[in-house]
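lol ok so funny story. i was supposed to be doing the assay writeup but got distracted and ended up predicting the structure for this chain instead. priorities right. anyway since i did it might as well share w the group, maybe its usefull for someone
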Amino acid sequence: MQIRISWPAGQVTATLDETPTTKALAAVLPITSTAHTWGEEVYFETPASPALEAGARQVVEPGTVAFWTEGDALALPYGPTPISRGEESRLASPCNVLGRIDGDPRALATVRPGDPIRVEPAS
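and the output, tada:
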């Protein structure tokens, strides 16, 4: 499944794997939310509320599309966060891994806190 994530200064697409969390997210699309940033991570609340999956991870590659179950939020790291060790992307806690941003995830650097952010199926 492909999704488009857009905000006032740009957009990215992402390819998601088939997981229980991806299915829960797909069921609530399209969504509009408010962007938050944490170091080099963008995150925002969604109406989906999936459970933590067995393969959840806290340290992921930049560009990973993750779901933070503790905040019902998509987490999109593109570099280090305040708790990273070195250049790793370390999320606040283990998150369900859904897929990857297509192309350069550093496009997310143009997201500003408070930006409206929209997620929809990419057609």
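Helices lie at 20-26. The longest helix spans residues 20-26.
back to the writeup now i swear
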